[in-house]
Here is the input.
Amino acid sequence: MGWLGFEERRTLVIGAGGLGTACARALAEAGARLAVVDADEGRLKVLRDDPALAAADVRTLTADLTSSDACEQAVTTAARELGGLDVLVHAVGTNDRRPVVDTPDEVWDRILTLNLSSAFWTGRAAGRFMREAGHGSMVFFSSVSSRLAHRHHAPYAASKGGLDQLVKVMAREWAADGVTVNAVAPGYTETELTRAYLDKPGMREEMTSLVPAGRLGTPQDVVGAVLFLASARASFVTGQVLYVDGGRTLV
Ligand SMILES: NC(=O)c1ccc[n+]([C@@H]2O[C@H](COP(=O)([O-])OP(=O)(O)OC[C@H]3O[C@@H](n4cnc5c(N)ncnc54)[C@H](O)[C@@H]3O)[C@@H](O)[C@H]2O)c1
Here is the structure.
């Protein structure tokens, strides 16, 4: 058994983007059995075809997680296919950067639904399985935007601030059932979510200059924090938001 104890742990990763994929690979390497959900079948195929994931016997589910029913069904299907659910990693999210006065309702609703409501819906569904089993670990992706007032990030920041509180309340309600709920909050990390923004003239340099560590994050940077919080080693850690940001929130 490895130090983190992931062997045979039945793990659902929600999101096969930059950060979800990095987590899925690391969890597979640590011995977890995996189901991965995403709306984009192409991203799921990349995971299925990845030789590094062959031993994890990864199951993939294509689902648009913008409704309560879809989220319930994704969690229930994954738990059925895996034979139970020990770990949930929620790593879907979206952003659309605009000033508050230029943010239409549709953008507000879309971001809040995917970033916050899908966390509530999938967390609630996973919580039912885990409480009944008497154990489980959940890790959600927050962001430095949950704490910092970045311009042009109103719905995104509101969704992540809301997520931090959702995590704390779920953690409190389920602590006595052996279920931990935590969040990892990265700073700017190069993935599809941030690439177009960082590619704007001067933006990568400006964002980097705000990070005491002197660089932006990589998906690999978040993996250790996620695996620790999802592992049995963190069984007495709950309701925490762990910033993985090179010191961005210190300044
Ligand atoms: N990349 C960063 O800099 C950064 C920083 C802080 C927090 N985060 C958070 O980390 C999480 C993962 O971000 P990422 O960088 O991997 O993003 P990403 O854009 O690389 O991946 C997001 C994934 O979500 C999927 N998705 C989008 N809409 C969906 C829907 N309706 N139903 C199901 N799946 C859907 C996409 O297909 C994609 O695979 C998000 O919650 C994000 O807010 C990212």
Summary: The first strand starts at residue 10 and ends at 14. The longest helix spans residues 105-133. The pocket of nicotinamide-adenine-dinucleotide is lined by residues 15-20, 38-40, 43, 64-66, 91-94, 114-115, 141, 143, 186, 188-189, 191-194 (CB under 6 Å). The helical segments are 18-29, 41-48, 68-82, 105-133, 154-174, 192-198, 203-209, 219-230.
